[in-house]
Structures are given as structure tokens and as C-alpha cells.
Amino acid sequence: MDINWNSKQIHVRRALWKQQFQTPKSKSSVRKIDMTEGFIRELKAWKLACPINEHELIFPSPEGKLSLHDNVVKSHFNPALRGAGLRQVSFHSLRHSNASMRIQAGQNIKYIQGQMEHASINITLDVYGHLFNDEAFNRKQAGLLESVRNPSETTPPKIKAIATFVGWP
Q1: How far, in Å, CA of 111 to CA of 97, rounded?
Q2: What is the DSSP string of 127-143?
Q3: How much is the pLDDT for 1?
Q4: What is the pTM of this model?
Q5: Given CB 3.0 to 4.6 Å as the disulfide criterion, which of 41, 64, 99, 158 pairs with 51?
Q6: Strand pairing of 2-4 and 9-12?
Q7: Whole-angstrom distance, CA of residue 52 vs CA of residue 72
Q8: What whole-number distance in Å separates Cα of residue 15 and Cα of residue 30?
Q9: What value, to the nearest 5°, has the Cα angle with vertex 20 and ends 14 and 25?
């Protein structure tokens, strides 16, 4: 994983498996993940605080070496959950939480597919499709349709043309 601070993206180009860097498991695993401004600030602060290491890792071991997944979970992740008063979950649960928050925020499903590295949009919909039945999410979707019905000055010309074509004011 490499970070491009200028483009505000994490470039996933390698994976760590059994203390060795390898090519990610699938073609869709090689990708760019967009970062928010808040996340960038936190990551930069952490990068300055973490040990200097030869691989320029963001999360090295305390000695600046490659981290072992089990050690990270036992020494950092599980204690953080307990400290926050949360029940113990798998580290992989963070991935599901991320996808759920993206859906709740109203991100485009195709965009979510790419950010999550799913080879097919069907995988994204099969795993997370139930989250699209949330009442608040559905109300938000209806509101999006209303915004097309009443195009504003900032509405893209193509959308205005479609709205006019179908007879919406």
C-alpha cells in the first residue's frame, strides 16, 4: 500500500502475507482508495509518530519492522475495542462497517464496488444489498429524484435536458 498525499489516495499495489510483500490476490485488488481530509490529517499525524522503517510503512511494529496480523489484533485492535466499551468483533468487521457507512452516506454503488475491491457489482449488492432497504436511505433517494425534477442552476446540462425531455418543469 502506498499513499499519494497530493492525489489524496491510497494506492493498493502490494499485500503483506507471511512477512513477505506479494502482488494482491486479484486484478480488482490493485486499486486506488480515496481519502477524506479528516482521515488524511489523522494519518499524517500517525505517520510522524510511528517508528522510522525501511519500507515506509504507516503501521510498522514498535521496532519499525513488518507487523504480524495476529499481534496487531491482540495488542492494539482488541484493547481499543475494550477501551471504547465495544464488543469484540473481527478485524474484518471494519471492512463491513466502512461499506455500511458508504451506503448510508449515499455513495454510488459502482464507486463503492471499486473502493471495496469487489470484482463484480453483484458481490457488493449480494453482501450489502439489505442496507438499501433502510427507510431513511430510501427517503434520501426519493429526494434525489426531486432534485432532478426541479433542476437548479448547478444541475448539469445533460440532467436538465433529460428533465425537459420527460416533461418535468
Answers
A1: 16
A2: HHGGGGG-HHHHHHHHH
A3: 54
A4: 0.69
A5: 64
A6: antiparallel
A7: 18
A8: 10
A9: 45
**How many angstroms separate the CA atoms of 168 and 137, rounded?**
24
**CA atoms within 13 Å, Cβ hemisphere of 27:** 2
Beta bridge partners of 16: 21
Question: Which residue's entry shows cell 469487489?
Answer: 118
Orientation angle between helical segments 93-105 and 109-116, nearest 10 degrees? 160
Q: How confident is the model at residue 2 (pLDDT cuts 50, 70, 90)?
A: confident
- Which of 20-29, 34-43, 46-55, 154-163 has the weakest average pLDDT? 154-163
Asked whether residue 159 carries a pLDDT value surpassing 70, the answer given is: no
Q: CA 91 from chain center: how many Å? A: 15
What number of residues does the chain have? 169
Which three cell numbers, joined as nine digits, stand for 130? 439489505
